[in-house]
Specification:
- The protein is α/β, with parallel strands linked by helices.
- The protein is 45% helix and 15% strand.
- The chain is built from 13 helices and eleven strands.
Length: 323
């Protein structure tokens, strides 16, 4: 296990204690999950992507996405849009919430985002991409970063041009997901391309894509010469990925209950339903998980979930004692 506390990592003006950071994931990286990730050592957290239009219009649901707790710091608020002036105004509003940095999403592959010229669609218009980044950087005092993909598709791998445009805009660091937009989340993340980018970029690069374990994160960090590594899906149900700790089954159950309580505290009883997608990941791979998964996915009350988790723990202990 690496000791990162001895040397803080520099990402432009942002300083972090660990180079393993949490990726922004729609539907997953809400405040409870961000708090958990930080508890387990994530270098920083990022909100789900938030519409610049919604921020400027003062949309109630959008405002809720901007809220975070002190325990989530360092935290970045990620915004997306394709109107230069709207992005500028949104960034200024976001700054009033006092995030540690603002991240510009230029890599989201969701059709509803790309089909209106936002997210990864900006990779097709490097001039506009650069203007947006420059406008946001000049509009705020906090560090600004951008998250991109390698290009729109394999015939348009223009990441070198995109990186130069972002460098010129004054961003503090850039996160690179090693896929094209056309790949969505299929195939494999191209870490050779990420390494190449890290070698020529004038600003710190964070590599992102297919990190499934702590050991893999450390290996990618060393091999790529990136300043940090961003972990997304690999952290769902496994926040220990940021520390390399191997939790006991009892510690895993305790973490699940803590996560449930955070969800209920934030969302009320509906938090139980929102927790389901995390639950299946937490228990994946354990003996009897399939049977309990079905019951957990239908549980609607905290006591019911706790009872099922206790049963699962009893079965685990019983099996290991008699095995």
């Amino acid at each position: 296990m690496e000791n990162f506390e001895e040397k803080r990592i520099s990402l432009g003006r942002l300083r972090i204690a660990s180079p393993l950071v949490l990726a922004p994931m729609a539907g997953y990286t809400d405040s409870p999950f961000r708090r958990i990730a930080r508890t387990h050592g994530a270098g920083f957290t990022v909100t789900e992507l938030i519409s610049a239009e919604g921020i400027v219009r003062g949309n109630a649901k959008t405002k809720k996405l901007l809220i975070f707790t002190e325990s989530e710091r360092p935290i970045g608020i990620q915004i997306f849009g394709n109107d230069v002036n709207v992005m500028e105004t949104a960034a200024q509003i976001v700054e009033t919430f006092l995030p540690d940095f603002i991240d510009i999403n230029m890599g989201c592959c969701a059709p509803k985002v790309c089909n209106v010229g936002m997210g990864a669609a900006l990779l097709k218009d490097v001039t506009l991409l650069g203007k947006i980044a420059k406008k946001v950087v000049r509009a705020v005092h906090v560090p600004v970063s951008a998250k991109i993909r390698l290009g729109w598709d394999f015939t348009n791998l223009n990441y070198r041009e995109v990186i130069h445009a972002l460098e010129d805009s004054g961003v503090d660091f850039i996160t690179v997901h090693g896929r094209t937009r056309s790949q969505m989340f299929s195939g494999k993340s191209d870490w050779n391309a990420i390494s190449q980018i890290a070698s020529f970029s004038k600003v710190p690069i964070i590599g992102n894509g297919d990190i499934a374990s702590y050991a893999e994160a450390i290996a990618r960090l060393k091999e790529s010469n990136c300043a940090a590594v961003m972990i997304g899906r690999g952290a769902i149900g496994n926040p220990w990925i940021f520390s390399g700790k191997l939790p006991t089954f009892e510690e895993r159950i305790k973490q699940i209950i803590h996560h449930i309580d955070l969800m209920i505290s934030m969302y009320g009883e509906y938090g139980i339903i929102l927790m389901r997608k995390h639950l299946v990941k937490y228990i994946h791979g354990f003996r009897g998980a399939a049977l309990f998964r079905n019951q957990l996915l239908h549980a609607k009350e905290r006591n019911e979930v706790i009872f099922l988790l206790q049963q699962m723990q009893d079965e685990y202990i019983k099996y290991n004692v008699t095995a």
